[in-house]
Write a structure and sequence with these properties.
- With about 400 residues, this protein is an alpha/beta fold.
- The protein is built from 10 helices and 19 strands.
- The strands form 4 sheets. It has a 7-stranded mixed β-sheet, with helices on both faces. It has a 5-stranded mixed β-sheet with strand order 1-3-4-5-2. A 5-stranded mixed β-sheet has the order 6-7-8-9-10.
- Helix 2 packs across helix 4 and helix 9 packs across helix 10.
- The model has no long low-confidence stretch (mean pLDDT about 95).
């Protein structure tokens, strides 16, 4: 065991989950009689010990957080430093290069790449980093140097402006730490080019997690009339247009997002894209009153269930939006239903689809079930790393 790191002892029996591969230690699992949390600073590296004194791994700790410690290695001689970052980034890179021909992907997906507390998205030679924990913030410079060494990017952008950081006592900031970046960046996904603003867009500016699900929809899109709800910058809709959709209508509340969408449509020389700004539920009512019908309706909302206590209200929102979407389906249409809410189980989402279908006296067949793209690998011991659900359903008269 490393002599440099202080031990953190668990209560009796609390090591079972960690022995099964989980990486988190909650504050109520720590034996505070053996380990005084007030002696630690946020981000300090420690050795996690069983109640009997067996070392379980090295972690960084935040005594003020519900998730008090996050394990980054089972080898207690390992430190979180530039060398470990280089090693882990190279391993993560080898997977992404095996998956994708071009350098557009999520490079680091937190715990699933054994680097808890960070995500890194790659947009060709531009790297966007998001740090959400004090332990990783403390290693910020080492992480930057490792990314420079492995990838040699022209730009590194820190999008550390997510509310989650406040739970760790961290400031919010948005900073270019290498190179220069301004305005829109051109990226590519599923043979479609997009113009996105990595500094002003949501999260890291783009969502790679539905890439494979959008590719599956392309198989159905030729000559179809498509409605893309909660479209953001048009990832689903424009990729459907690439696959030969006859018309695409994209709906989003953000005027800025639709401006980027329109620019992307123009760059791809699409003349069949219509963007509609407004509250999706209001737009759905309007389209229904206008008796509009679509061959494919895509429902990919923001997380309606961000916390457990939001479950009932969020579940009703998923039911309502899918029911309204079905009302716009032609006689033999496809409904694409997605959720990024971790607290919404796939089977519960299916129940909402089925409930909406029966309420409207429609018959629904689920053709395909999708998950998050493989550049968002799931850690099998951490169900929290599996959050994306997607269903392609056929909707016909009952």
């Amino acid at each position: 065991m490393s002599n440099e790191l202080a031990p953190v002892y668990l209560k009796k029996g609390q090591e079972r989950r960690l022995n099964q591969g989980h990486l988190w230690v909650y504050s109520n699992e720590i034996d505070t009689q053996k380990t005084s949390l007030k002696n630690f600073t946020a981000g300090e590296q420690v050795v996690i010990m069983s109640h009997q004194g067996k070392p379980l791994g090295v972690a960084y700790i935040n005594p003020h957080s519900l998730i008090s410690a996050r394990i980054f290695s089972r080898k207690t001689s390992v430190l979180l430093d530039r060398s470990l970052f280089v090693h882990r980034i190279k391993i993560a890179l080898s997977l992404r290069e095996r998956l994708f021909a071009k350098p557009f992907y999520r490079l680091i997906f937190g715990e699933s790449d054994l680097l808890p507390g960070i995500v890194v998205d790659r947009f060709n030679d531009i790297i966007v980093v998001q740090i959400t924990t004090a332990g990783m913030e403390q290693q910020r410079q080492a992480l930057i140097e490792a990314l420079e060494k492995v990838l040699k990017p022209s730009v590194i952008l820190m999008r550390n402006d997510v509310k989650m950081r406040e739970l760790e006592g961290l400031d919010l900031y948005n900073e270019v730490v290498l190179g220069e970046l301004s305005g829109v960046t051109e990226i590519e996904e599923n043979q479609t080019r997009f113009q996105v603003d990595l500094q002003k867009g949501q999260k890291t500016g783009w969502f790679y997690d539905h890439r494979m699900n959008r590719a599956r929809v392309q198989h159905y899109a030729k000559d179809k009339r498509v409605l893309d709800l909660f479209s953001y910058v048009g990832a689903w809709g424009l990729e459907a247009a690439t696959a030969g959709a006859s018309e695409v209508f994209c709906v989003d509340a953000s005027e800025q997002a639709l401006d980027w969408l329109d620019s992307s449509a123009e760059m791809n020389r699409f003349s069949n894209i219509t963007s509609i700004q407004g509250n999706v539920f209001d737009v759905l009512k309007h389209l229904r009153n206008e008796r509009e019908k679509f061959d494919i309706v895509i429902v990919d909302p923001p997380a309606f269930i961000k916390r457990k206590k939001d479950f009932k209200e969020g579940m009703n929102a998923y039911r309502r939006v899918n029911q309204m979407a079905m009302q716009l389906c032609s006689r033999d249409a496809l409904l694409v239903t997605a959720s990024c809410s971790y607290h919404m189980p796939a089977e519960t989402l299916v129940q909402q689809i089925q409930g909406a279908s029966r309420h409207l006296d429609r018959f629904t067949q689920i053709l395909e079930q999708g998950h998050q793209s493989p550049d968002h690998p799931v850690h099998p011991a951490l169900p929290e790393t599996a959050y994306i659900k997607s269903f392609i359903s056929r909707v016909t008269p009952a």
